[in-house]
């Protein structure tokens, strides 16, 4: 089967040399089979144990599986272009497909790497298994992998309601005039009048606060589980589930591989210390979180240096997305702006930690019934 064949043979050998434990193991297998609601057809195992009564973990599927290549080919119609949900490019250097496994109604997301990305199969399996132990409702959880010959694939929960970037950056105007900040107010006003009739409904303020809090909670959980490093956190990594709630893609927790950089975005958005030493640290993740806060505030991708100039010039309201039409709390916006400013500090030691993020944002989440607008 590829990467894990030797480990399977080892387990067989163990059973032969310890026959007195065979019956006990068989009983345990039967119990696991009864509990199993996993995705794959083999190597199912608990990735995190039960929730221990933790309400934050209720409803999270804890199974993690090794998938066969034929399974994933069948699920994605032989990796058909019609099943691609994330194109290869600067923001997503590897293709992501949606798929549906045989005899299962739920969809999955399959990320396809080249062998060059992970030449060592053992390293790939170890890294995937490590990330697969993370289980939280704020994550688009990793549920399995495939390591077969030259194939390297990750399998995750599928999020059907697109990315934060898709919902926020829906106005072409913002890409064309991205750096013309001196004319921003006038251009926004004129363009809004012209485009508003045909534009998708914007994300309301309460949902933006939810995104900020939920992603902070995801980062804090992962940090507490010994996985504080997230590679290239940006609005494309924030996904919306079936209920329209934001989740953080698990793919960003995989270590940097040979085929790409830890930061695929423009250098203007890259943590300054990464430019110096090329290393991702917990503090650099906080910096990237600050850029996501700027996205949520402005509805566009503003270079941190420009945003900090506005904040230092007491022009906080110039940061705010005009599509909100003033429907937000100035006090709440000020809290988020100040937090973004702290996250974007040049010196890593001056940035908050993940606990500080959650503590600051939690009191702002006061509308549990807020819904994500449709993109159609």
From TrEMBL:
Keywords: ATP-binding, Brassinosteroid signaling pathway, Cell membrane, Kinase, Lipoprotein, Membrane, Myristate, Nucleotide-binding, Serine/threonine-protein kinase, Transferase, Transmembrane, Transmembrane helix
TM helices/strands, residue ranges: 168-195
One of the Pfam families matching this protein, by short name: PK_Tyr_Ser-Thr
Listed InterPro entries: BSK, Kinase-like_dom_sf, Prot_kinase_dom, Ser-Thr/Tyr_kinase_cat_dom
Record's bilayer topology term: Lipid-anchor
Keyword Membrane attached: yes
Subcellular location: Cell membrane
Catalytic reactions on record: L-threonyl-[protein] + ATP = O-phospho-L-threonyl-[protein] + ADP + H(+); L-seryl-[protein] + ATP = O-phospho-L-seryl-[protein] + ADP + H(+)
GO biological process: brassinosteroid mediated signaling pathway
Region (Disordered): 1-59
Name of the top EC class for this enzyme: transferase
Enzyme Commission code(s) on record: 2.7.11.1
SUPFAM superfamilies: Protein kinase-like (PK-like)
Span of domain Protein kinase: 82-365
GO cellular component labels: plasma membrane
Molecular function per GO: ATP binding; protein serine/threonine kinase activity
Biased composition range(s): Basic and acidic residues: 12-37
Similarity-based family: Belongs to the protein kinase superfamily. Ser/Thr protein kinase family.
PANTHER family: SERINE/THREONINE-PROTEIN KINASE BSK5 (PTHR45863), SERINE_THREONINE-PROTEIN KINASE BSK1 (PTHR45863:SF22)
Protein name stated in the entry: non-specific serine/threonine protein kinase
